[in-house]
From TrEMBL:
Protein name: RNA polymerase factor sigma-54
Residues in RNA polymerase sigma factor 54 core-binding domain copies: 108-296
One GO CC term on file: DNA-directed RNA polymerase complex
Domain RNA polymerase sigma factor 54 DNA-binding: 309-467
GO terms assigned for molecular function: DNA binding; DNA-binding transcription activator activity; nucleotidyltransferase activity; sigma factor activity
Keywords carried by this UniProt record: DNA-binding, DNA-directed RNA polymerase, Nucleotidyltransferase, Sigma factor, Transcription, Transcription regulation, Transferase
One Pfam family linked to the record: Sigma54_AID
Amino acid sequence: MGLELRQQLKLSQQLVMTPQLQQAIKLLQLSRLELVETVQQELLENPFLEETENEAVSEVEDDRSATEDANDALVKDADWENYLGEFSSTSKQSHSRDAEIPEEGMSFEARLASKPSLEGHLSWQMRLSNFTDEEIAVGDVVVGNLDHNGYLKASVDEIMSMIPVEAELVEKVIRKMQLLDPVGIAARTPQECLLVQMKVAGFDSDPVLVSLVTDHLEDLEKHRYKPLVRKFKISMEDLKSYLDLLQTLDPMPGTNFSSTEPHYVSPDVFVYKFGDEFVIMLNDDGLPSLQMNSFYVDNLKASNEKEKDYFSEKMRSAAWLMKSLYQRQRTLYKVVESIVRFQRDFFEEGVTKLKPLILKEVAEDISMHESTVSRITTNKYVSTPHGIFELKFFFNSALDLGDGSQVGSESVKALIKQLISEENPKKPLSDEKIGEILKEKLDVNIARRTVAKYRSAMGIASSSKRKEFF
């Protein structure tokens, strides 16, 4: 068989993701705060980009600064010490001291106190208590093996493998740490945590209370009260007093020092009702308005090919960024406008009127690809007359009604939550009963297991756990 080289022409098509297209897709799925940060970074890196200035705002600021300068001059020239006379509460020395160290000279971060961590709080207490150096070393290992609830997740043997000490010393350090603030920290089980807190509070002398914590926490959780009343030969009122006392204890002492930071939401879009129509306003607060820097465009001249390529690249990048930002805002507006059309009943009356909706319907309505709609609705929030919601919230599955129409699953969830909030705590509604009520109100055939699925998704306990006996 002979081998030879041949040339062959072949035509083919393939999708190439240019850097500009990648940038446009990236901007689509950024949240508003991430978008502001990205634009600010581009302003720092690209000399051909600049932020447009509002002349009217500048004039107002100039007038304001002139007024402030005049007021400052008046304050400095006035003889306030003679004016106040004997009613002056501060001395001249304090005035000179304030002038030497103005508060404006301090950074904003210097005025804020950092949130204490659980590790730092325990380490600080150990070093101020009667812990020896060896006990502090063991305590540091124990602190490093605590979970976010404050429970010790390492066994004594595992701690001994990390630091060469005796088992007795490890147990001693754990017991001493459990008496630190918060009390019950470094416990291995919820029973141990509650027993330590009971000992510190002086509740450990009651054998019934100790037995409830040691052997019957599961029975208390599942509201199995009658067997406990018979076992301990006490009344329901006595059992209720024990439960009230246990509720004063903290089974998760480490949660107050959780490192989880709150998640703040800034709406990307505002929807207001004006008359019979809904007005859509994009939130441009903090988002710079960009333009090409005319000074660099007109005056910069490249001395060599390398500089010419750099200038051309930065100019193209600036132009593409402005175009991508405009396209993003335009797409966001069109998607929200389509959602308002489809979900007008929601904006009029609330969550119970939310209709079933899928991405494909909005994509066809605004003549865009479904993936574009998916990206622009990711991490975006809209402020409505009924609260702030993620754009993904408006897309939900459908449930068939008896008359052939459909209702959104989120509407059913909202009605389930409303029914449970209005129920009698001593006779909570079962999932089967909720299904019957939904059939009466919405004429929807919904199975008991579907009600249970929706209830669990909303974090609502079953009827047996919601029942109150007292």
